């Protein structure tokens, strides 16, 4: 693997980790993160000599996922940043593992939601000294930093993707 490919390959895990941390601490995923994933994907597609059909399929998957996640956003079931992050991650995951990615997002999102609901119920906000971001998690019926689940799913699936394997071999 060339050194430039090594650096570009880091775009996905670093962006996903940054998105998860940012969502936890601020309840926002800045647009620059999905944009970095989009740009990184284009560079990685060139470096890996991705066939045009595969590139087109990944783009189509990303657009389809964006359409579905924006519908969820329109019904207030998912945040806008989460919608963009899922779609940008789908570009990197590709057709072979998109189902795994989406299923893991759902599973990790459910586990995250249960953990935060338990935190709200069993960790008293007024008794325990916690930072502002942790206090925000106590908001009854407040948002869940779903970017954590999206990032966890992406990081779990990415090492088995054709894109990743093409650059590490």
Question: Topology, please?
Answer:
Blueprint (H helix, E strand, L loop, with lengths): L2 H7 L1 H16 L5 H16 L4 H23 L5 H14 L4 H25 L9 H5 L10 H11 L4 H7 L1
Summed up:
The protein has helices spanning 3-9, 11-26, 32-47, 52-74, 80-93, 98-122, 132-136, 147-157, 162-168. With 169 residues, the protein is mostly helical.
Q: Strand count, sense and closure of the main sheet?
A: none
Q: In which range does the helix fraction lie?
A: over 70%
Low-confidence stretches: none
Average pLDDT, to the nearest integer?
92
| Beta-strand proportion | under 5%
Continuous helix count: 9
- The best one-word shape is elongated
Structural class: mainly alpha
Number of strands: 0
User: Terminal Cα separation, in Å?
Assistant: 7 Å
State the domain count.
Answer: 1
Write down the secondary-structure element order.
HHHHHHHHH
How big is the Rg? 17 Å
Keywords:
9 helices, elongated, mainly alpha, 0% strand, 169 residues
Walk me through this protein's architecture.
This protein has one domain. It is an all-alpha fold. It contains 9 helices and no strands. Helix 4 packs antiparallel against helix 5 and helix 6 packs across helix 8.
